[in-house]
Write a structure and sequence with these properties.
The protein is of the alpha+beta class. It has a single domain, classed as Thiol Ester Dehydrase, Chain A (Roll). The protein is elongated and about 55 Å long. The two termini are about 25 Å apart. About 30% of the residues are buried.
Length: about 140
Amino acid sequence: MSIEQIKLKESYSIDEIKIGMYASYSQTITDADIKSFAALSGDNNPVHMDEEYASRSKFGKRIAHGLLSASFFSALFGTRLPGKGCVYVSQSLNFKRPVYLGDTIVATVVVTKVDKMKKRVFFDTYSKVKTKKVIDGKAEIYIP
């Protein structure tokens, strides 16, 4: 099976989606990202917000919210694959390593199954910082 990086397109119909297609998105995590996510989510855990507190944690410094890093999957689904109009059905997440300020995270989604009858597409999802996997999981997306 060959894996195909898709070209950015507004959206894909269920008939255009093939097993092995994938899309990736990268972003460097900044202090502003963490503060914005905390303001939106209400999660002001000091391991994310307070350098002094975080320095005494097992992480040694501030870390990004796990769901901030996982939110890049949603960006991929809604803008790249499948694209416009799709809706999350489910997402599993395994947080393997922390993401720190200044890390560049690369989120990738890979099509593993297409159910044309139910208009569902299934994905492996994972994120890496450099060569280390920080998140993995699976997703199911509905295409209207």
